[in-house]
Design brief:
The chain is of the alpha/beta class. Helices cover about 15% and strands about 30% of the residues. Strands 1, 2, 4, 10, 11, 12, 13, 14, 15, 16 and 17 form an eleven-stranded mixed sheet that branches.
């Protein structure tokens, strides 16, 4: 029976944003102000991931001074290399990079940079695929990535291209076992903050514990709804959540089952048509249209 680690491992959930920018690259606010904004908004942790580019001095911003007894930070960066199939500069999210991570050589291409991030201990995600029309062939070159962004809030707010679901469904349908994540990618030039986050199940709100849980897939992603539990059985999946208008389980291709209603908080969905596709993931939608997504489980 498949098990979703976010709802099976011990610990508690911590709310965090793992993709954010400051004025150390192209953001509007100082690192201190960004950390303060997320701390005051009730987040438990933040990864400040400024653009790791020569024009910004290859920053991995040291945010450790902004930690408190209830708010922590994970060092990281958004790293770049040439070039996607459309000729775009690659964008990869690396959470948990060491401060001394070496600068990117001009001739280092994305697969090599991705490997170097993984070897350095980072949680690696394919950033905002919808924003710059990343193809499956592109994504296939980034071996070992832990996740791809299913929702990028600034891409949604600024370009209406925040949805990464189509690419993720193609990857899953092809058998790639990659998780998903929702992020802000906030720059604070507009209201591109507090729109996408992860809820990480960990033993403590500490960088190493959070990073280990991210790599293990012990989290879910959300724009607002809360998922309290997901339990897979032989023939069905049981979902408990905050009040929802739709609770669904998705599988390969068009395979889907859903329950629609008003204020749904506990739903059981059949799996007989989902299971033969090899994987499933749960989506919860509230009455405002905001989503929460679990990582896929596999048979």
């Amino acid at each position: 029976m498949p098990v979703d680690p976010a709802f099976a491992v011990p610990g508690r959930f911590f709310k965090g944003n793992i993709h954010t920018h400051s004025n150390r690259s192209d953001g509007a606010l100082s690192p201190e102000a960004v950390c303060e904004a997320y701390r005051d908004a009730g987040y438990d942790f933040l990864s400040l991931t400024d653009h790791f580019l020569g024009k910004y001095g290859f920053p991995i911003v040291d945010t450790r001074r902004y930690r408190t007894n209830r708010f922590t930070t994970i060092l990281g960066a958004e790293v770049h290399a040439p070039a996607t199939s459309l000729g775009e500069l690659w964008h990869l999210l690396a959470v948990g990079l060491p401060e001394e991570f070496a600068q990117t050589p001009a001739d280092e291409h994305a697969p090599a940079l991705a490997r170097r991030c993984l070897e350095a201990g980072a949680f690696l995600a394919i950033a905002h695929p919808g924003w710059y029309a990343l193809t499956k062939a592109d994504a296939d070159t980034i071996e070992g990535a832990h996740a791809a962004e299913i929702y990028n809030h600034t891409s949604h707010v600024r370009t209406d291209r925040g949805d990464g679901g189509a690419l993720i469904d193609q990857l899953h349908a092809a058998g790639r076992r990659i998780n998903i994540c929702a992020v802000d990618d906030a720059h604070f030039h507009c209201r591109d903050f507090f729109g996408g986050f992860v809820m990480v199940k960990a033993s403590a709100n500490e960088p190493e514990a959070l990073l280990g849980s991210l790599k293990a897939g012990a989290y879910y992603s959300s724009q607002g709804p809360v998922i309290e539990s997901v339990v897979y059985g032989e023939d069905s999946v049981e979902v408990a959540c905050s009040p929802a208008s739709v609770v669904m389980v998705l599988g390969r291709g068009s395979r889907a089952k859903q329950e629609l209603g008003d204020g749904l908080t506990r739903v059981t969905l059949p799996l007989e048509t989902i299971r033969p596709g090899g994987y499933a993931r749960v989506v919860v939608v509230d009455r405002e249209g905001r989503c929460a997504w679990t990582n896929p489980v596999w048979w």
